[in-house]
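Hey, resending since the last one bounced:
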Amino acid sequence: MDTKKLTFTALFVAVGVFTAQLIYIPVGVAKCFPVQHAINILLAVLLGTRYSVNAAFATSLLRNILGTGSLLAFPGSMIGAALAGILYRRTNSIIWAAVGELVGTGLIGALVAFPVAKYLIGSKAGALFFVVPFAVSAAGGAVIACLLYYTPVIGVVREWLGARPR
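The structure tokens again:
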């Protein structure tokens, strides 16, 4: 593993944990974090699927340890990060990475969250309860990521990481 990439991933994990206390949407037993979804997409684009999923796991774990997240953070972030990375690798398009995050979190992650909520948290929410809030949160994060992607900052980061230019 590359030290620059690990450092950059750790920086994004720190941003994800810090902003989790500032920007979130409470929905029943879940909290939706649009910044986390933006981070998932940007890491998938800049570093790849492995770094994006690992950062999503680390951010979810730290938020749970600090009491700012729930167990729903794991399916709500990691599946979207994985699908964003896979679709970006196949298409080389930020739009498809955003679609991956939206489908991965808003649909697949929300459906996987149901048994977690029912059996581990004791929620009586229905199977489709998390689809809308997770999709709204992921959509917000996708918009943030797409806007940031076209700023000069991402070009500087790509150059620093030695990644291919857009």
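DSSP finds seven helices and two strands in the chain.

Sorry for the duplicate.
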